[in-house]
Specification:
- The protein is an all-alpha fold and about 190 residues long.
- It contains nine helices and no strands.
- Helix 1 runs antiparallel to helix 2.
Length: about 190
């Protein structure tokens, strides 16, 4: 797919519009017609640039990520996690959490969406998180055979899913920081 026709600014505007629509109507009701109307572009352009709705949504989510994990190395695992959390704000965390809950439901009925999310969002995030954890092992902070290393993504995703369910409160920086300090780091032996 040729993606050179859009300026980075225009591409970012399109991604923002996709995420706004996703928050407003959910994945199932999101249509390429609605994206085209919202962004004053043609449906043909959208399909030419992204190929499908799942690809467009996954790329919009990837573009929305406030933190590139491969850029973070504070010298300690606790410092890395705290730096990651400091790069977002409570409003964005709440919006992202709501988006992910909606998409978690949508992937059950849409294998193409699941593939696109894994390829464009989950796998790059996992690679970045693996790098953060690998550096902690190399520094001797975490034992290489610690079974919790493989479960860190599950723990973090669990925090996003559980808080709204258990407490009927949004995920925020204070909660995530407390969660990392009380659950994730102790599980890793820190």
């Amino acid at each position: 797919m040729a993606r050179t026709r859009l300026t980075p600014e225009r591409e970012s505007e399109l991604y923002d519009a996709v995420l706004d629509l996703l928050r407003e109507v959910g994945y199932d009701a999101l249509t390429m017609d609605a994206v085209a109307a919202r962004t004053h572009s043609s449906k043909a352009t959208l399909y030419r640039q992204w190929g499908s709705k799942p690809q467009l949504v996954a790329r919009a989510l990837r573009n929305n990520k406030p933190v590139r994990l491969d850029e973070i190395d504070t010298g300690s695992l606790r410092g890395d996690f705290h730096e990651i959390l400091s790069r977002s704000d409570d409003c964005r965390l709440e919006q992202d959490s709501a988006l992910m809950r909606g998409l978690a439901h949508a992937v059950h009925d849409n294998p193409e969406l699941l593939r696109a999310l894994r390829e464009l969002l989950i796998e790059p995030e996992m690679t970045g998180l693996d790098g953060v954890l690998r550096r902690a092992v190399e520094r001797g902070e975490v034992a290489v055979d610690n079974p919790a290393l493989k479960l860190v993504p599950h723990m973090l995703i669990g925090a996003f899913v559980a808080r709204p369910l258990v407490e009927d409160r949004p995920v925020d920086q204070a909660f995530l920081t407390a969660y990392v300090d009380a659950v994730v780091l102790p599980a890793l032996g820190l």
